[in-house]
Design goal:
CATH topology of the largest domain: Rossmann fold
Number of domains: 3
Strand order of the largest sheet: 16-15-14-17-18-20-19
CATH superfamily of the largest domain: Vaccinia Virus protein VP39
CATH class of the largest domain: Alpha Beta
Radius of gyration: 23 Å
Distance between the termini: 60 Å
Number of helices: 11
Length: 413
Amino acid sequence: MIDLNGIPPVSQKNVAIRVTKQAERKLRQGHPWLFDGGITEESFSPKSGDIGIVFDQKRKFLSVGLCDPDSPIRVKMLAAGKPAKITADWFLARLQDAADKRAHLAETDTNGYRLVYGEGDFLPGLIIDKYDQTLVIKIYSAAWFPHLAAILAGLETVMPAERWILRLSRNVQAGETWGLNDGMVLKGDAPDAPIPFKENGLDFAADVVHGHKTGFFFDHRDNRQRVGKLAKKKTVLDVFAYTGGFSLYAAAGGAKSVMSLDISRPALEAAEQNFALNKHLEPVANCRHETVAADAFKALEDLATSGRTFDLVVVDPPSFAKSKDEVGGAVKAYAKLTRLALGVLAEQGMLVMASCSSRVSAELFYETVVNTAAEAGRPLWQQMQSTHAADHPLRDGFPEGAYLKCFVFSAID
């Protein structure tokens, strides 16, 4: 196990913080972030990871969190309403609670899932994903470095695993990391191949060291399963397929053929490997799987020009709006993708559209898709709306946590 003694400890004294009325109102509603503009007074200048106690206008306890002085989100809230002493035992209790909430997943033949969902599990800025006997700890805030030893000690008790991998967000990598780096092995042997895991009985493997996020997107687990149930005897197109999650579920559900479309050739090679892991399943073995490495927008145009159509089209693009200023461009991109997808959708086909842009509301996303389809002369009827899986719990007062929107439509031809 790697030595973490080089990380400076937090201050022995907590930081007392006073806030604006607007910030107080947001915190009372349950929002886990205190922005720099909401702070009116600090008892001293905190270091990253120091414990900050927020007081209301009447100088009564409001909430407690981790200070992050180099971030616009100056304090990440751990608890509110009732005073809490943030210790190793407190972190252990939070990890145990998170593990208990996911215990039911074992009954679904699943050993790959999100163990800790940051703000949703009252550990903002911290993600922990489980890949069977490998845990991937991703840090989105430098405030977690001084508390990493406590988190690892808690994991040893709550979820013993053979290997721990550390992943760091880009903004964290740009600052002081105390000798830690992205992809570092904190415990166990360095993996020499993608890590195998199971999801709803299907076999996958993920590159947890170099892959996007932690290597796989667990948030779509339930939506992938829904697609699998819709895919029987259908031709399927999976746009922005990445490593073939939707594609494999469609094949396992009895699809006649599946095309996985993504700009990344390595991602598609991983998709082919995931198919190979499941060749023992008759529906997967009988499904014709085709991969296309190309820009999604251009490839959809080319498929339409060639007259290629599909019974079921899944469009799950990356986030198009990471800031408020990008929402307009994101809406235009979703509208264009809708038109292009309809261009390859068979008569009375089914279209699955997803958005992971938290800045784009479910209402705006739905209106964009439906209005675009109506303008294109191919109206859509909504069959289903869903969000992310239960291992990504929502938190009251934190709408940003409900980032994933997924709609299933039927074409009315």
